[in-house]
Amino acid sequence: MLLANDPETRLRDATAAIEPRLVALRRDIHAHPELAFEEVRTAGIVAAELARLGIAHRTGVGRTGVLGIIEGGRPGPTLAIRADMDALPIHEETGLDFASTVAGRMHACGHDIHTSTLLGVAEVLQAMAPQLAGRVVLVFQPAEEVLEGAAAMIADGAAEGIDVALGFHNHPDMPVGRFGYVRGAALAASDRFDIILRGRSGHAAHPYAAVDPIVAAAQLVGQLQTVVSREMKPLHPAVVTVGMFQGGTTYNIIPERVHLKGTVRTLHAEARDKAEAAIRRLADGVCQAMRATHEIDYQRKVPPLRNDDRVLDPVIAAVRAQFGDVVEEGEPSMGAEDFSAFADRVPSFQLRIGSGAPGRADALHNAGYQPDERCIGLGVQALARAALDMLR
Asked: Are residues 111 and 171 in the same domain?
């Protein structure tokens, strides 16, 4: 007999009853990955599951996002719990029976895990809705990998009326069964730049009659390495990476132009401003010295993700109440997450859920990545317990 005052047992048993279905849903989504803003099939699965559970929902939020609403039995605050749904342009090499059926696309970041986990949270909390003082908004978000889905959903009203927000991400660097947190800035701001350097094309035998944008671009790539090493405070982490260097067509032609693409990641506003100013200044200087011209398209994509102790502390307390001493404090990461768009508006926290499989050391965004699927049920328990305890 289940006791009303024993949430630990109730959540464990309720999750165990639905876990096989959640794993099956995860494998189905995994086999049919969809890229940013193309998550039509995935959103359809989410909507169908919410309808089956009798949860009011809205589709087409932020193009392909889904919002579900669970009304509690008494008035109270509104808690949003967010999961992302999109896959990556990676060709899967796991050899699993449920591997991607779409060439060049793969759930290599575990968003299939996240989607099925939040569906499990939805089912558990819907059954316990009368106990909630407030409401839960279930945010199934598209396009996290391109850092645009959260902003698109917010533009469609996804953040309206929300008092606090809870996000989560699987972590293969942590064993399944463990959970983690970071206080303050947990993930970096992520900005992008496109720099086009223009010269004057000519014959490789007569470089004096041309202006070589490849040499100018090479000089600029080298100079960009000084942005972090010579302009940032040592205690203000920053990463500047040039990910594409494209120019020229053959051996003996100096090209007309070179295109550079890169990212800038920072944890502090001062470092973010300094990096942009330095990149613009260095591009100006190199091009002036090398007789080239340039154009810069610099885009500030998402701010740092800052965890708020007002959400972090009760969530971690709930995880400990459900599982015991399985929580560890971690370090910030220079990765980025557009959940920060919600965290910029309301107090928020992103929980780290261990997904490391025994004997494996796969990393996110890897063609062989496979999490331990037990993290789904554990994530359901952790997130549902946090919602129950926060909405008493």
From this structure: yes
CB 30 within 8 A of CB 98: yes
163 and 270 inside one domain: no
Same domain (yes/no): 15, 92: yes
Q: Do 353 and 379 reside in the same domain of the chain?
A: yes
pTM of the predicted model as reported, rounded to 2 decimal places: 0.94
d(CA 132, CA 76): 8
- Are residues 33 and 156 both part of a single domain? yes
User: Which structural domain, as residue segments, surrounds residue 266?
Assistant: 189-302
Rounded to whole angstroms, the Cα distance separating 207 from 205 reads 6
8-state DSSP, 225: T
Give average pLDDT by consecutive 10-residue segment, the chain, 392 residues.
Answer: 70 98 98 98 98 98 98 98 98 97 98 98 98 98 98 98 98 97 98 98 98 98 97 96 98 98 97 98 98 98 98 98 97 97 98 92 91 98 98 94
**Boundary residue ending a domain (270, 302, 334):** 302
Classified as helix, coil or strand, 215 is helix
DSSP per residue, 83-102: EE---BS-------TT--SS
Report the C-alpha gap between 51 and 53 in whole angstroms.
Answer: 5
Cα–Cα distance for residue pair 95/384, rounded to 1 Å: 33
φ/ψ (deg, to 5) at 381: -60, -45
Query: How far is it, in rounded angstroms, from Cα 182 to Cα 334?
Result: 13
The alpha carbons of the chain give a radius of gyration, in whole angstroms, of 24
Maximum Cα–Cα distance across the chain: 88
Query: Quick one: which of 158, 370, 191 has its CA closest to 264?
Result: 191
Cα gap 207→50, rounded to integer Å: 65
d(CA 120, CA 376): 8
Q: Does the residue 376 lie in any domain?
A: yes
* Number of structural domains found in the chain: 2
Tokens representing residue 93 in the block: 């090499």
Q: How far is CA 159 from the centre of its chain?
A: 17
Q: Does residue 317 share a domain with residue 171? A: yes
User: β-pairing, 348-356 with 164-175?
Assistant: parallel
Hey, how many other C-beta atoms are within 10 angstroms of the C-beta on 27?
A: 17
The residues, ordered by sequence, that sit 6+ positions from 210 with a Cβ below 8 Å of its Cβ are 199, 200, 201, 202, 203, 254
- How far apart are alpha carbons 381 and 132 in whole angstroms? 16
